[in-house]
Specification:
The protein is 46% helix and 11% strand. With 432 residues, the protein is α/β, with parallel strands linked by helices. Helix 8 links the parallel strand 8 and strand 9 (255-259). The structure holds zinc ion.
């Protein structure tokens, strides 16, 4: 085919696929979890129907150690380089299967629950005779983990069991899994930007999804919505997530876990959790309308200032197509979407407004201004920020550090990033 024909042919295929594929965009995901501070108290924010992995899973993440007790048989551990390695499991171990089976019977009975059967968080693979015989290699534990998953799923049809496409189990098994066994796919490979379809990471992820789809209909994603090096500065994630949710529906992904800041405070988390919860039910919802509705209800006097600023960031991230870092510096945020002058003007306007507020709204705004004092400080601390009048800039920095000191009064505002990063220590280090 010549180039023109190829274009016509591919356009025709798109039209045909649109005609035969029913729109699933308005279908809720069957699993909708938010790991965000706001979702720890969803009712307070009008959030309904979300899951919380701390309560809704029998076993979540890399936590088999919780099942096997303090002094388990050493037979459950992997043999790596000829020795038992207690940081990894042997997934063909009859003892490990027995521990899991008994624990599920004792604690979970007939009520359906979800269980993660995921290796320890490293790439080591058991090299025992059984594991090698079942097909494991030095880099792939998939055959043994899939075998364990299959046996548990067959034994407990009322429950669901998940492995993760991650480290030694990235590749799918060669045989289909039972219908109550599935996979959790990390989306870290897809750059967090609008119009992600054009990226190399997207094609890699898309290929992994398609490979797993051959062996299981239960596909969930492990999604992220933060800069994990900076919980406190703005991170406009909503339009980007909306686009990704539509894609997940189109490829048959039926569950979403959003990895936010967990129990730690993060800025704009209330509005974002509220809208993400709605998007997980219907990815076609009008994000701008929901943001404004939220702010009218919970920030009746100051909400329009906040909504205008927040939506401007969302629109910029969408229009400029910049990557929002999963792990990034304040300079990367500035390069991507955060305009220092605009941010300072927003903070000042909101701070002025605070004087006229009372009750819960005043507290919420005060919390926001406190957390954003970190961003004000960081923006003043970037190279070049102090070049005009260093003493004045230093006075500003110290002012924002003092405001940040109010973090002790803000629920959950202890760290400024994912890894233990106490604000107390940060303030101490930078105070003069
Ligand atoms: Zn083994």
């Amino acid at each position: 085919m010549n180039r023109a024909n190829v274009i016509i042919f591919s356009a025709l295929l798109t039209v045909i696929s649109m005609m035969v594929t029913p729109s699933r965009a308005a279908t809720p995901f069957e699993f909708r979890a938010l790991c965000t501070p706001t979702n720890n108290n969803p009712k307070a924010w009008g959030i309904k129907g979300t899951h919380n992995v701390d309560n809704d899973w029998g076993l979540w993440g890399h936590n088999i150690w919780k099942v096997v007790g303090k002094k388990p048989s050493r037979d459950i551990y992997a043999i790596v380089n000829g020795e038992r390695d207690t940081t990894q499991y042997c997934f063909t171990s009859p003892m490990l299967y027995k521990y899991l089976e008994e624990w599920i019977i004792d604690y979970w009975g007939e009520k359906g629950a979800r269980f993660s059967i995921i290796p320890g968080d490293n790439k080591r693979v058991c090299q025992c005779f059984r594991c090698k015989q079942i097909g494991c290699t030095r880099t792939s534990a998939t055959p043994a983990v899939a075998d364990m998953l299959t046996r548990l799923a067959d034994k407990f049809p009322q429950h669901q069991f998940f492995m993760a496409s991650y480290h030694s189990t990235t590749e799918p098994p060669t045989k289909p899994l039972p219908k109550n066994a599935g996979v959790m796919l990390s989306t870290m490979a897809i750059p967090f930007r609008y119009n992600f379809y054009e990226n190399k990471g997207f094609h890699k992820f898309d290929a992994i999804v398609k490979a797993w789809k051959e062996v299981t209909p239960l596909l969930y994603v492990w999604e992220y919505n933060r800069n994990f090096d900076d919980y406190l500065s703005p991170y406009p994630c909503l339009f980007i997530l909306q686009e990704r949710f539509k894609y997940y529906h189109s490829v048959g992904i039926s569950g979403v876990f959003i990895n936010g800041s967990g129990y730690d405070y993060s800025s704009f988390d209330d509005v974002q959790s509220y809208v993400m919860a709605k998007l997980m039910f219907d990815s076609e919802v009008d994000v701008e309308r929901l943001v404004r509705t939220f702010y009218k209800k919970y920030y009746p006097k100051s909400g329009s200032i906040i909504a205008d600023y927040y939506l401007a960031l969302e629109k910029r991230a969408k229009e400029t197509n910049h990557i929002l870092p999963y792990y990034g510096t304040i300079e990367e945020e500035v390069e991507s979407y955060l305009n220092p002058k605009e941010f300072a003007a927003f903070w000042d306007e909101l701070n002025e407004k605070k004087a006229s507020l009372s009750g819960q709204e005043r507290t919420l705004v005060d919390n926001m201004l406190t957390a954003f004092a970190y961003t004000r400080f960081m923006l003043l601390n970037t190279p070049g920020a102090g070049s005009e009048n260093e003493s004045m800039v230093e006075a500003q920095r110290q002012k924002f550090l003092r405001i940040l000191g109010n973090h002790v009064n803000v629920p959950g505002l202890v760290n400024y990033k994912e890894i233990t990063s106490p604000l107390d220590q940060f303030i101490k280090e930078h105070s003069k």
